[in-house]
Predict the 3D structure of the following.
Amino acid sequence: MSAAPARPRPLIDALLPVAALVIALMLFSLFVAMEGQAPLEVLETIFAGAFGDAFGWQNTLLRAAPLILTGLAVAIPARAGLVIIGGEGALAFGALGAAAAALALAGSPNPVIWLGMALAGMLAGGLLIGFAGALRQWRGVNETISSLLISYIAVALMNHFVEGPLRDPASLNKPSTLPLAPEAMLGNLPGLDVHVGLAVGLVCAVLAWVFLRFTIWGFTVRVVGGNPRAAAMAGLAVTPWVIGLCAAGGAMAGLAGMLEVAAVHGSCNASVLVGYGHAGILIAFIARQNPLAVIPAAILIGGIGAAGSLLQRRLDMPDATVLVLQGILFVVLIAMETLRGRAWRMPQLPAPRLAKATPAPEEPA
Amino acid sequence: MQDRSRFSRRNFIKAAAAAPALALLPAAVRDAIAAGGITVGFIYVGARDDFGYNQAHAQAAAALKKLPGVKVIEEEKVAETVAVQKSMEAMIVQDKAAVIFATSFGYFDPHVLKVAAKYPKAHIAHCGGMWTEGKHPKNVASYFGYIDECQYLNGVVAGLTSKTGKFGFVAAKPIPQVLRNINAFTMGARSVNPNATTRVIFTGDWAMPVKEAEAANSLLDQGCDVLTCHVDGPKVVVETAERRGAFSCGYHASQAKLAPKGYLTGAEWDWVTPNTTFAKALQEGKPFPNFVRGGLKEGFVKMSPYGAAVGEKARKAADDVKAKMLKGEFVIFKGPLKDNTGKEVIPAGKSFAQQAIELEGMNYLVEGVIGSV
Amino acid sequence: MTIDAITAVLLAMLGGAIRVSTPFLFVSLGETITEKAGRINLGLEGTLVMGAMSAYAASLHSGSPWLGVLAAAGAGAVFGLLHGLLASLRRVNDIALGIALMLLGTGLAFYWGKAYIQPQAPTLSAFHLGAWSDSPALRSALDINPLFIAGLLLAFALHWAFANTRIGLTLRLVGDSEAAARAAGAAVIPTRIAATVLGGALAGVGGAFLSLFYPGSWNEGLSNGQGIMAVALVIFARWQPRRCVLAALMFGAAGAIGPALQSVGISSGYYLFNAAPYALTLLLMALTCSRDTSLKGAPGELSLNR
């Protein structure tokens, strides 16, 4: 946990991700060479595609924008020891809620529409994942499995509404909700070809970080996540915190869904679901559940996506090449944790009122 | 790289995007451009060897590669979101593509439109009949085929081959394009067997192999002995039918080699026709056509060769209808036509040619289809 | 709905339970073994996909689908070994590692699998236990793959082995309390690695079922998250192999409701019917769990539930 007092080997710790990157690229080069491609050319192309020029950077950042939020959707509940994997469903619900709000607010001034959509999206996503938290506290249902199940149900509901009650009759072959007016679409950040979702993601990540690290509430979360028995004894209400953190995470994914509607698609439809929610799980674990570290993790994934495009066009390599690269990179990154001077582990929240005694967490010494 | 004295945000972005990209251009492309050749880009939403939708497009791409002066670049599994916007932009900026074929229906609005507006000199041809004069920019084009003609012929062949008169249709979503195929197939079958019925199962997604297999099995369990489908990859449906000793009609591309015993025939796209039209127009400096479409007659769609199980009578019946279609004398959707709730959807005396706008919004299942939308 | 229609739906659910459940069964049994030893391998989705691809490729090249199953088990074991070894390193989080391996497994399977999308490999054949019946629905429902039977037997064998064999007891001890296991002289780390390898191999076999029997071909959309769902079902089954069978059968049967209803003409709201397996699982969990019993049987060392 971030509360650990000492960092015995800060330099080594800081260099670990770099070392992981180097090792992963070496392994990837080996793989590429075995497949009969020139490793240097491949690496060059990957770099050029993701970070080689302004186009590459903007491509990368554009792809990273929703991933920051879906990463937070996993990272925030994880601070209290909850493993939530229902981000995709929360994103779907958020998109649906936002589209419904846009319908209701049609004709209002843009800021009102945007605010309404954002609130509706966050509310929809928050309720969804908050429900997983509530099931956990009140019915003892494991939040990992319930969030996954709820996510599948939410996606089905979204599809049902998009093709049924909320369908724009004019959306013939691509069933969608009624589109936003073109002037009500969220635009790009000044001087960039990246929509404002990036800024929203950055702000949310920083806010979450500040909240969890520097406020008394953040301290409470750490206590709840670290030792809920102690928390309960100290008079902290664990249940509202668990539900609240789940809801906050869901709200982040819901906000990502809202941004997909308001900044990219203009309406809610099946194209909104492209796996951002699932990618968020990976991002959060790469970032070791640190909201600030979610940002570079998301940019890394975005960059690899951008690189994949160029790899296909320049070197005729299959789209799966970047999946292999991601896989190798993240396995190495996570395995390298072993060299870290300071132990990190996910906080672990016991099930509510566990019947049997829980063995003391074993700390590898 | 850029002239600092005339720095403006917009110029900066343009220059920054374009300048290094030129340097990135591989020698082969530079040479091709220098020699008056063109680069064309293909973007697919799924894997290009899926025995279905994407493969039909990739086959056309392979054909274009053989044209002199044409270089083809491809990207597969590109999602219908910012990913496709960026892929199109990259093809324009980094590869100097003269035309991009955006092959998935979901790419059009807003992705193709957005990129086309940003790069007015680039050309994007989208598969699907969306382009509208006055509403959409001139550097965007639509191309599409009337594949319901082939589905009608599928139905004729199925109707004369089936023993039970019950047909199964595995479909992704109840959208007009899909309903039109289901209806055409059913009408073809009922033209030769008035008692024929078609059962429909919607899977809800374009590519879901396990669900498609479940649907195919459910249909076969209900006594259907010919299956066909409208999903991105018909492989699973055709293979399941073959394994259970039933017949199948293909879709998108030919699945004949997957089912040597039971494959009757199939409705296939022939995208070489429109794709060549666009490439040639640009190569020869002619105006960019905005809307090209056609059916069997125009060479936009074609039938798979008949399989071994198709008898003489069925071949003849289908060939007769096909000959009429090739002459432009056959109309599929004409009154009186009832839907499967008994409501008249096309009154007697009225007939809709393929271009009819009424067919674009089809929201009913015709008499003989079991299921609802 | 007529009697015929109801019969049709029920038969389809029976068929669905048998056809669709096998991959869930193998993955969840494999994960049960791994989790009993105190580790979580969330990467079994990737292992499943890798197993499916390897099985198809091996079957194509060798001409024998059973060699394909073996290859899938081998590929799964390799991924299990990777997870087992790396998760044994200090401070390496097993959940995070699983997610990374899921990506690697899927990526490699897709990369190497490109060559196998088009060719047709020999597939596994079924026992036609329904040959006596005239009903095509019943006949097809009773086309039972040997792997399904193997999965059932395995579940009961595991149940017995966990309770009655030395290995089973060691495994549970290692999973319940590392300190106690060490005190008893059990080799904690090797046991966990072995349990993860075994879990991976079984997940690989689950993948082989997908590509070699049902739906019976290799393509990239083959697994729509079946691996992840199966891992989740382990919690639902409360780490009991016999309950894994129930969970898998129920999940398969519920999944057949949607298509079956449509095949008899009921097609409105099909998305909602398709969500039936998830809704049913959730409902059952909410009804049967309670604050006190939810984690009965949970291995004490499991990071997901501690």
User: Anything to note?
Assistant: Residues 3-288 of chain C form one domain. Chain C has a mean pLDDT of 91. The longest helix of chain C spans residues 3-36.
